[in-house]
Design brief:
Blueprint lengths: L5 H5 L5 H22 L9 H22 L4 H11 L11 H25 L1 H11 L14 H18 L3 H18 L7 H7 L6 H5 L6 H4 L9 H5 L10 H4 L15 H6 L6
Helix pairs in contact: 2-8, 3-7, 4-7, 4-8, 5-6, 5-7, 5-8
């Protein structure tokens, strides 16, 4: 296993951390303001409680991989480029084409991974914690079990190892994924005409809302996080919930209690025999 020194990882780009924090902060603040100005649905759980506990999960998910994993996808992409390993490092694609192809490939893998987490029992036990949220807002995008985050990172690294993408493509995809997750979990209104246009390209909040329906036939639709094409191509797209955007119940049956919003309840959720 490859153990890089810290300088090796921090050299791409020189201001990688600053760019990540800046993009995250800008998108977080923008969506938070939109939720305040044009809320889509009234919240069931107290906002301060959800933000604190979902934020605590996100903090854990940011720290734990750094303690457990010796290398991250960007570091692996840099190493593969230096060694000439991976499919794209042995092809004649222009850099711009390699970046676009890499971002699309990683996004397709995220779609497939999300579909898989709904189909495999063990993976669903990890993922269902995300679905026990009784409300949807931008902090729902931060609410994933740490074990799911670790598995997702390992899947991404496996794809990077096979594909050999430019490191900048992995960086762009990470920014895109984090930003779009906050956007499409956001609790704010978008005019129908604008929403219909946008969801032809990207996943909008109203499109992703269907995926959080308490009805499993509905929650087994709209798996995309970024680009909306995959759901249409693979037949998992559903335009609207049967009960309507305002009438649809969010969450899971058996988990319609405020206590499941608490940090420790989220941590032990996969280990409950339900």
């Amino acid at each position: 296993m490859f153990f890089p020194d810290m300088g090796f990882l921090l050299n791409f780009p020189q201001n990688e951390t600053a760019v990540r924090i800046g993009c995250f902060s800008a998108i977080f603040i923008s969506v938070a303001v939109a939720e305040l100005l044009v809320p889509r649905r009234p919240l069931i759980v107290k906002k301060s409680l959800r933000w604190f506990d979902n934020g605590s999960i996100h903090l854990l998910n940011s720290l734990l991989p750094r303690l457990l994993l010796p290398i991250f996808p960007i570091g692996m992409a840099i190493l593969l480029t230096q060694k000439g390993w991976g499919l794209l490092n042995n092809a004649t694609f222009p850099v711009a084409a390699a970046v676009v192809l890499s971002v699309l490939s990683l996004d397709l893998v995220i779609y497939a991974q999300h579909w898989l987490f709904h189909r495999v029992a063990f993976l669903w036990r990890l993922h269902r914690m995300h679905h026990t949220d009784l409300d949807l807002d931008l902090t729902s995008a931060l609410r994933f079990h740490p074990l799911e985050i670790l598995i997702s990172l390992l899947i991404k690294m496996a794809v990077v190892a096979i594909l050999g993408p430019p490191a900048v493509a992995v960086f762009i995809f990470d920014i895109f994924l984090n930003g779009m997750a906050m956007f499409n979990h956001g609790n704010f209104k978008i005019p129908n005409r604008v929403d219909n246009f946008l969801r032809g390209i990207v996943v909008t909040p109203d499109m992703h809302l269907v995926h959080h329906s308490i009805l499993r036939p509905e929650s087994n639709h709209n798996f995309g996080f970024n680009i909306s094409w995959w759901d249409r191509i693979f037949g998992t797209y559903q335009a609207e919930p049967a009960a309507g955007r305002q009438g649809m119940i969010i969450g899971l049956k058996g988990y319609q209690d405020v206590r499941y919003a608490r940090f420790w309840q989220m941590i032990i959720n996969p280990f409950e025999k339900r």
